Amino acid sequence: DRQSENIKQFLTSVGFKIIRLEAQLKNGDWSNMAVRCQK
């Protein structure tokens, strides 16, 4: 039904965001941000 389709799309978009965050972590973006915040 339509509701389960919406839930699937929502979970998919959330999954992509998490994958992107993990990629940024691996690339060291977060450590760079932490260094900037400490200064």
UniProtKB/TrEMBL annotation:
Q: What is this protein called?
A: Uncharacterized protein
The organism encoding this protein is marine sediment metagenome
